[in-house]
Fold this sequence. Notes:
By secondary structure, this protein is mainly α. Helix content is about 75%, strand content about 0%.
Amino acid sequence: MRNIRGYYSWFFPASPRRLFFVPLILITFLLPVGADAQSLAKVDIDLFRSINRTQSPQQGLFDLLDAASGPTFVAVPAALVVVGVFDDQPDLSRAGAIIGAGQILAGGSAVLLKVITARPRPFDALDDVKVKRRSSATGFAFPSGHTALAFALATSASLCLENPYASLPLFVWAGMVGYGRIYLGLHYPSDVLGGIVLGVASAWVVWQFREEIESFVDNNLTRQHSRSDRQSLIHIPSTELLRLQIRIR
Length: 249
């Protein structure tokens, strides 16, 4: 158990500076492989086909995960902010704002990279691809936007929670979302890997500005400030109230 905690704390410490090394390590390992682009492309396609050919015609777990992922990306940060505001729990609002900012950065970066790379989807470039949920595959392939958003959410939430036992299910879910995009015939494995790097990096960048985000939330969204403002507006000194009562009598 101690070894597991030590492994987790290296990648997701309370101070998130070392989180920067996660995408750096991934890129470093990919550089030697990327020296032969043709071999890398063949490995990518072969791995895609080995996963995609296991697709079942029946609706299964990955279909449901993929269908639920879109609403989840929006609902989780929005719900945290709303519940935090109305239940007077500023920590929830702050976490929701940080997660939401990570989602925005990851999603926006994914759209930009898709336009730059202009990589066709596997079902457009390859024959005999099993495709499901094609309506969720808009634009180009690289990187996987769903994967980027899933890992941005999991990473941001983990940094806010600082609890390995609560974070593990988040990353399992994010990994299954990414795997499902290959399984459904919508992305190559390299698209998903790019989404993982982008999602983790986006969450890390946003985390560096968490104090500014939390300050914005505290000044604009928490009920504590608005309540104190209302109280200051309706407050009447006791001496003035006594004089008013005497005049009425």
